[in-house]
Amino acid sequence: MNEANQIEYKDGLCNLNGGEDLYPDARPSGGWFRRNVSRLLIFAMLLYVFITMLIGLNLSGSVSLMLVYFLTCLVCISLLLVCRKDLFSPIGLSVIWFFISFLLLIPWSASIREVAPEAEVPDSSLLVYTVSLSLLGLLCFALGTVCRLDRLIYPWLRWVLKSRGALRPVGQLEFFLLLGWIVLGSVVRLTINIDVAGLETDLGGNITGLLHYLFFTVTNALILLFLCRALPAGRIYLIQFLFLAGIFVGTQLRLGWRSGLKEILIPGFVVFWYQYLRPSMRRRSMIWIFALVLAMPTTMSIGNAMRTSRSGGVAQKFSEGGVRGFLVKLVTRLDGNSRFAGVLVHEMGGEGLSFANHFQMVELLKKRVSTANYADHEIWGIDVTFAHSRGASGPGGAYIALGILGIVLGYIFLGVLFQTVYRLCYSLSDSSLAVVLYGLMVVDLAKLYSENFSIIQLGKSYTFLLFVLLLVKQLYQRQSGSDALLRERHYG
Fold first, then answer.
1. pTM for the complete prediction?
2. Among 370, 399, 420, 452, which is disulfide-ready with 391 (CB 3.0 to 4.6 Å)?
3. Can you say how many angstroms the Cα of residue 438 is from the centroid of all Cα atoms in its chain?
4. What are phi and psi for residue 481, nearest 5 degrees?
5. Phi and psi angles of residue 245, each rounded to the nearest 5 degrees, phi first
6. How far apart are CA 236 and CA 229, in angstroms?
7. What single DSSP character describes residue 225?
8. 346-369, pLDDT tens digit by residue?
């Protein structure tokens, strides 16, 4: 535990021994894209703000909204400049998801309301509230990454994720065992309708949740760990990874999930990004992961067709053609403002913002109701027997539970958690398990802004995932490993 107190920070990376880099090669290198992606993103954001200033925002007709929008964009660009050394740091990723969820569609809100009224875009006064409170969440997340509270949980997570030396190399036996597990999970999920989009199963909630964790969360983690260990092994294993990922994504599509590919694509990209943590390893081109990007339009089309055939009403509503249908789908799936605005209208009730929202979290815990379920049933009127969730947005879920206080405490906690795992990606001799966990958390971070935020659900999911990674570590770790042991002796 004393080691955790010796960790220092410099340029957004984790360092030991008075500021000496743990892994000098971990800094952005190894390709023009990796070295310049932060600059490209900052330039793109500045260009977008400039274009919207000239074209889009004139349609909103709200001076206060324009002011909040530009100030928030300035904060986002400033935070990106702070973490420019590693765009995939917690702050960098948080800014990206925040911008997509709450700022991207602001300049065009008035136009969307005119063209597609059914998209339920909030008016300018509500958008000022949603953007301001969401910005508070972003700043609290950033505070959580720098407040050093991560040292409280760092030793425990390090114990779970640290292996003795390097993990065992990937092999053909593991490939076939993992293939059998994926096929078994696919058969079980398709046979008894586990995780079918828009449909409830006849099984109890506890059994359904356990099967979901076993055949979705665990399978996803094992595929990503296979990728981590396939990178230095050879091209044949990368091809096998694509094959395993294809079966997993195909099951998601068959169950009606249009965005099933992102569950592999986003954490897979994180794994490729952090292969630079291993200086002695041959680095693979990101073209391998971009092969999945090319498949995204096809997978979304197949998933939408499957959902339409399974659960007509909702899927048909979201698949109306033309510009209007596109705008409805864009707002419904991407925009966090519309969800958050609905929460504020329902919870404020004409009384203004609440500091703690009457501590409604206590009542929800007594009823064993999550904030997402509360929003679906009480705010959006979705029937309890229908397995479809619109959600409350991340800040909206925190506001339902504890008002403004919930947003502050919730996002500080998230910042601490993400920063701890991020530190482990840089401080372990073999960071495979930490990188896999971080990649899965990156997918969740997008949902924690635009869709739902539930501390209880996060606790269950990550506790189960850490338990699985602990078991996997015991299975794959080995006593020897010259490269890992040499680095372990040098860096402690």
1. 0.83
2. 452
3. 9
4. 150, 95
5. -65, -35
6. 12
7. H
8. 888 767 888 998 899 898 888 888
